[in-house]
# Entry
Amino acid sequence: METKNHRIYAMSVASVYIHYVAKAERKGRSKAEVDEIICWLTGHSQAGLSDELSNKTSFEDFFAQAPKMNPSRALITGVVCGVRVEDIEEPTMREIRYLDKLVDELAKGRPMAKILRQ
# Structure
């Protein structure tokens, strides 16, 4: 039986990425800032991120094969979709929600230095 999480993990990052960018742009932020957040979180270069998007890599593979997940991501706290990200036990779902939370912070106008936990 397929679970909801399994369907999310199998979704391509590219299919959600367009929504991340649209959300940021609606709030006066840029695609470049979304890319910076994703690269900070995963260790991807801009070229590597572009390749993953072109290849329609699933969320599960995207995070599992990320060059170097940023250790500062553990500083990301708060609520996404009614759930505290720091309380999510399943690792892949936690990574997805970290990304969601960072994009939310961008759309809310938070400075990049604070988003990137600097």
Notes: Residues 31 and 50 are 12 Å apart (CA to CA).
